[in-house]
Design goal:
homodimer; 239 residues; alpha+beta; six-stranded antiparallel β-sheet; two-stranded antiparallel sheet; 8 helices; globular; DNA-binding
Chain lengths: 239, 239
DNA sequence: AAGTGGTCTAGACCACAAA
DNA sequence: TTGTGGTCTAGACCACTTC
């Protein structure tokens, strides 16, 4: 781990353990230089991580302030596995059930989404997510089979992302998401416990690797009462 | 404008004008140092802005790559005024109609949301957004009246954020958002053209200033067929 | 006036990717 | 082997906030 990352984790630990509380000021950057025996640039990199993860707020001329991070757990706000999200919802039981897995020849829509030109095959998999027994999420994934090898039921039902990152050694870089509302389909009705709901929240994700290759296209359909998206948007520079 | 910002804008211009296209490599950081007569740190700050805004992708050992930015316009992904969003939807006419404006004594819910302890008053305002004539969005805003002074119908119907930033000199820092789906209320039915829709997408926003004061609480209700949220989530360091 | 974060510089070494 | 981005250092000046 780099020096600035370990400083980041150290300060984060002080926030989590309430050695630093919401509203408190951090030591100044020059004080932190002495405390961690680091250059100002290294301290500033650590503070930038704290900012990016929503833990502190800076403003010119003032000391940095610790923010209140309790309002949100932000489970869906970044790229992460369903298991991590599930951990945050401790009161509910979470089960993932695979309903389909095959290596298929993609249709035009999927070829287009995954930017496939030739005869590359694609893993298609469908999973139902049950919260406290109710089937409330239906995920359909398409993965480029030139990049991802040897998917099995066990991998898919446990943690796909662990397999992709730790076993396949893929470096996931970023994901584009589009959230809309859509009318339910016959498949939704068949696989989900929709009760009387007539719409679902539809989340399309396009996931990219380090080298800018797209490797995964996902359609995630959520029953509206179980959908929740949280986000902290920092002010960006104008474009 | 700082040096790194002007370098950012210069490179951005080359992407927009297709002097640099999606998939192209940028010059190396050391080459850019010469081109812009800048230090490596300054170049790297400019490149970080390009990354944060989704224009390029870096990876170690390789040159940086220009990304495809056409997939998204990301109108709702950051804090910005409705006018900016509207500009992106050129094909539709957009009208904002104020339906309520008053300086009120807040109830417990609003006091809690705005972190108000004493007798501070609050601006409450409601606006209906019409796309091509249809009332599809209903916004209800609460603004701390100790911070925001002198709201009028004209300000509200034009650009509230321009007034807050340029006239009041407020520095908006970040906003927390929670997106859920909810059943419609009588007020929704009265003020919006809901057709037969029975649910709306509900976006609660808490907007903070530079000094970590919360100054605005907003509830924005969208007819589901007109709702769309786009996001590019970069891989963050683990926490 | 003193202290803070923001910007900028110049130089060094490392790990990784590609030729 | 060469070039790339990633990390780290030390020092300087500025604009802003607070006292």
């Amino acid at each position: 781990m780099s020096k600035y990352e370990s400083i980041f984790h150290d300060i984060l630990g002080k926030i989590d353990s309430h050695e630093l509380n919401a509203g408190d000021s951090l030591p100044s950057e020059r004080e932190l230089m002495g405390m961690y025996d680091a250059s100002r640039d290294t301290i500033r990199k650590a503070l930038n991580l704290l900012i990016q993860n929503g833990y502190i707020q800076k403003s010119k001329g003032r000391k940095s302030i610790v923010l209140d991070t309790k309002r949100f757990k932000m489970p869906f706000s970044n790229i992460e596995s369903f298991k991590e999200v599930a951990k945050a919802l401790e009161e509910t039981t979470v089960v993932t059930e695979m309903v389909y897995l095959d290596c298929i020849t993609p249709d035009e829509r999927v070829k287009n989404a995954l930017n496939i030109k030739g005869n590359t095959k694609v893993w298609m998999l469908q999973r139902v997510r049950r919260l406290s027994g109710e089937a409330v999420i239906l995920d359909t994934d398409f993965l480029n089979a030139d990049i991802v090898k040897g998917l099995t039921k066990e991998i898919v039902e446990n943690s796909l992302y662990e397999y992709l990152e730790d076993v396949c050694g893929l470096n996931i870089s970023y994901a584009d998401k589009i959230i809309t509302c859509q009318s339910i389909t016959g498949l939704d009705e068949k696989l989900m416990d929709l009760n009387s709901y007539e719409m679902v929240v539809n989340i399309e994700s396009y996931t990219y690797l380090d080298d800018n290759q797209i490797f995964q296209y996902t359609i995630s359909r959520h029953r509206p009462d179980k959908f929740r998206f949280e986000d902290r948007a920092r002010r960006m520079h104008s474009v």
